[in-house]
Every structure is written in C-alpha cells, then in structure tokens.
Amino acid sequence: MQDNMSENDTDEAERHRAKMAKRKAVQDAEVASKTIAKGLLMINTGPGKGKSTAAFGLALRSLGHGWRVGVVQFIKGRATGEQAALESFGDRVVWHTAGEGFTWETQDKARDIAACQRAWGIALGLMDDPTIGLVVLDELNIALRYDYLPLDEVVAKLTSRRNDLHVIVTGRNAKPALIEAADLVTEMGAVKHHFSAGVKTQAGIEF
Amino acid sequence: MQDNMSENDTDEAERHRAKMAKRKAVQDAEVASKTIAKGLLMINTGPGKGKSTAAFGLALRSLGHGWRVGVVQFIKGRATGEQAALESFGDRVVWHTAGEGFTWETQDKARDIAACQRAWGIALGLMDDPTIGLVVLDELNIALRYDYLPLDEVVAKLTSRRNDLHVIVTGRNAKPALIEAADLVTEMGAVKHHFSAGVKTQAGIEF
C-alpha cells in the first residue's frame, strides 16, 4: 500500500469498513440470540478422516480450560500418539483402552461384545464422576453398529447424564436414534484421501 | 452367554470367525498395497465443526510421537484452550497468532491483509525449520478466500516444501487449486448444530 492513498483506495477502504460493520452487527445479534449454556452430546461420524482426531482436539481444548477429561476406546486397542501426549496432563486425563482392535482382528464376536460391555461400564463410571467435564467415547458408533451394545440403553443413559457434562461420540455410521438425541452432529466427508494414492498409514497422522 | 453354548451359538460364532478372517485378509492386502511414506498436505474444510479442532488433535498426535509442531493462526486472535494446553509441551510447540480476529472485527482491509502477510511469512519460516514435523495453518483458507494472499504463490510454496513435512490447512471454502494440490481433503458437514438450538459459544467447546 502506498503512503498516499488514491481516492479510489480510500473509497474502497470505506466500503469495506461499512460492509464489515454491517456484518458485525448481524454477527453480534446472532451471538446475543444464543443464551443457553449446557453440556453437549456431540457426534463425529462419516467416512472421512478427523472423527477421533477432532475428539482429541476437543479434549486438548478442554484441558486448556482446566477440566478433567475421560476417554474410553471401544474398539481400537493400539497405542496412539494422542494417548502418549495426553499422559503429560497426569491424572487430569483418565484413559481406558477397552477394545482389542477391530472385529476382524479378534475374529471372536463373544470377546468383542464382552470388551464393549466392559468399555460401556467404564464410560458410565466416568459420566458419573463430577470432576470430569468431557467424556470421549471413541468408536462407540462401531460398537452400536454391530449391535454389540443395546442402543436404547446407551441413548437413554447419554440423554439422562448430568446437565453440564459434555460427551463426544466417534465412529462411522452413527445410529439415527443417537443422531436424534445429539446436540451437534458433524459428518466428516472424504473429498480426497491419501490412501487412494497408495500412501500408507503413518505415525503422527493415523495413530 | 451361557456356559454350555448351544449348537446354534457355536455355528454363529464360527460363521462370524470365518467372515472376519476373510475381512482381515482383504484388510491386510489393502494395507500391504500402500507403500508410500511422505509428508502430507491436508485440508479440513466445510461448514461443520471440527476443522481447527481436528488440526489441533493432529498436533497432539504428532507431539505424542516426539515431533515439534508449528502453528500459525491467520485470522482468529482470541486466546484458546488448545493454545493454553499446548503450552505444557514447552518449545516443542511454536505458536503464532498473527490474526486480530475476523474481518468484521477489524473492519480494516489493509490491516487484515498486513496481518495475513505477516502470518504467511511466519508460516514459510516454520516450513523451512527442519526440526518441525507438522505445521498447522489455521484459517489460511479464509485468508485465501478474501484474496488477502496470492493463491498461486501459496500453492507453489506448499507443494514445493520438503518431502517429509506434514502441513494441515483449515477453514471454510478451500480454494479448488489448493484442493487439487492436497493429499487429503476432509469436508466437515454440519448435520446438526447446537447454535441452531440457541446454545451459545462455550469454553472448552468453541474456544
């Protein structure tokens, strides 16, 4: 930008300012219209990447506000970077890996069901802990999809949780009844995926 | 499950095992077919929640593998929970908030452009730092959408970065040229959003 602004530049700057002032008024009115504060039931679903990743990002954000966070992994059994990183927050993160890998790894339905029931029991305990502000139920959608847990009971317990508790559920193919009960549902769509271009699973990206 | 499994139960368990063994073979072949390891250019876009959140989840995952992470915020100027939480990783996280809020906050286009140019300069420095494994360019898509930065130059610099560097770009309305250059593009779709139900912006959830 030149020191001596031309008249056109000045006009354009003024038009921009007026447009943005108008937008700010709309934005401020919108913000003012929202008054409810409550714990949210959130779902990250869809075929794209970012469902669990965003849930752990939310855990990080919560930790930054001084909360305690509970995590239950229903399916995945593998140690991950996020688990290692969250260890630096000590007992402010309660982490449970109840899963033993995907269902094609165990090849044992009874064992998968038992692992999911164990995970759900742990989840209920975390949801009852008043010191915890956010509970991450990672891949719970997978457990529900395979009918490894009773959907009605899961939805009932999630909706009757205490009013200030945030819960985030991840996994593809979220059940309609869970979507119905949720406050926030994000569908991660895969516009483009590096696996299709022959790129393998890499540390720091997939786990 | 009963101690004495009926013949039906045994049959069903065996069918499950056979089906999962087959699926595992398919899965293993798929994994084996992917052999490329490289730094990825990733984009989180779309109207739904989780774009920046997943980028910070990825930062967390990278930190768990011992990497250093660089973050540049192009638009947002507000202090966030994720920023506070990432401070516990000391100098393994290099954080720059170059933005001063959304464009309707500053109402000054020249100032917004200057802030974006400053942010881009910082981003280039981080991308050149060989000790950094992941660079988060938060809301860069917004800067590009408003033409606050030259798209051609940004795409050229991103695609010519060193081979092992991962970069993640967030923000709505990713430019087609950037999508074309990317390895991974996820579109966050808003199936359901709590703002529509009058819930306000809350600590730990939105910031």
From TrEMBL, chains A, B:
GO terms for cellular component: cytoplasm. InterPro entries: CblAdoTrfase_CobA, Co_AT_N_dom, P-loop_NTPase. The keyword Ligase does not apply. One of its GO terms (molecular function) is corrinoid adenosyltransferase activity. Residues 5-31 form the Cob(I)alamin adenosyltransferase N-terminal domain. Pathway: Cofactor biosynthesis; adenosylcobalamin biosynthesis; adenosylcobalamin from cob(II)yrinate a,c-diamide: step 2/7. Pfam families: Co_AT_N, CobA_CobO_BtuR. Residues 1-12 have a biased composition (Acidic residues). Keywords: ATP-binding, Cobalamin biosynthesis, Cytoplasm, Nucleotide-binding, Porphyrin biosynthesis, Transferase. This is Corrinoid adenosyltransferase. The lineage of its organism: Bacteria, Pseudomonadati, Pseudomonadota, Alphaproteobacteria, Hyphomicrobiales.
